[in-house]
Each structure stands twice: as structure tokens, then as C-alpha cells.
Amino acid sequence: MRISNPLLPSVSEGVQVDELALDTEALTITARTTAARAACPQCGRWSARVHSSYWRTLKDLPWQDRSVMWRVKVRRFRCSHCPGRIFAEPVPGLARARAQRSDRLAEAQTDIGMALGGEAGARLSRRLAMPVSGDTVLRLIRRCKSARCSSPRVVGIDDWAWR
Ligand SMILES: [Zn+2]
């Protein structure tokens, strides 16, 4: 079933949602990319030569207290200019290459981790239907710090006392 994107305002152009499956714990969104071509990450030139496709799985922000999982059919393209180069297309508006979670989920879990730390952040995140491990929360914080994200927005009195 083709589901129109106007009903799903956070879905970017270039992503077609085909199915929504809801159970008591999770919403699974099945989708595919629709761009006719993709830019080679090595040379930057466009390619429309589809090599193959595969299913990519991505966690996203929760909906109605349920965790959200995307199953996106993504294509690999062959570059006409770089010998032997095959690359996967990005999922526009959703996630960076090789990420296991959407950019918006990573941002939310990073913010929670910045406020609470790894284990407490993971506990709150699970409570909010965004299951994650404490180690992953710490990894997200480290990645954010190396990318020079903004400083923690909330500094509690306990954090102040420890410094
Ligand atoms: Zn290339």
C-alpha cells in the first residue's frame, strides 16, 4: 500500500512509505528510496546505474509510546567514473551512512545523555520508548563532543557540586 507523504510530514522527499505495521510495542515503517540517481561519495558525480539493493534497519523517535523502526530498501549504485566503485545511497532526511538510528533519535538520546549521563540516560530513554544501552549513550555523547556540538543545556545542582 502506498501511503502519501503529506500524512507523514517528517518523511523527506525521496522516501516512499509503503507500509505501517503497529503492534503493542512498536511501529514498523517499511519504505524505499525513490531518487533516480545518487552522488558517488568518492568523485561526487551522479550515477543512475543500480547495482543491487538491501534492507536497512533504523530506529527512530517513538510514536504513541511505541518504539519506531524503519525498514528501508536502499540501493547500491555503480560509479561510471571510479573503477569498481559501488556505493550505497543515503536515506534523505533520516540518517547518515551506516547509522543504526535516525539523526533525530541520535540527537534526542545525546541530549538525554548530556543531561543525565550514560546509565541514567539509557534508563530514561528506555522509559520513553527509545531503548538504548548506557554504552551507546556514552558513544553518542563522545561523537557529539568530537563534532563540537553545543554544551549540555541543563546543569543540575549535583553536577555543579561535583566540579
Ligand atoms: Zn565516483
Question: Which bin fits the share of residues in helices?
Answer: 25-40%
Strand content: 25-35%
From the structure provided, what is the oligomeric state, counting identical versus distinct chains? single chain
Rg, Cα atoms, Å: 18 Å
Concise account of the structure shown:
With 163 residues, this protein is an alpha+beta fold.
Tell me what the structure shows.
26% of the residues lie in helices and 31% in strands. With 163 residues, the protein is α+β, with helices and mostly antiparallel strands. The protein has two domains: 92 residues, no CATH class; 48 residues. Strands 1, 2, 5, 6 and 7 form a five-stranded mixed β-sheet that branches. Strands 3-4 form a two-stranded antiparallel sheet. Strand 5 and strand 6 form a beta hairpin. Helix 1 crosses helix 2, helix 1 crosses helix 3 and helix 2 packs across helix 3. It is globular, with a radius of gyration of 18 Å. The C terminus is likely disordered. Bound molecules: zinc ion (ZN). Zinc ion (ZN) binds next to loops.
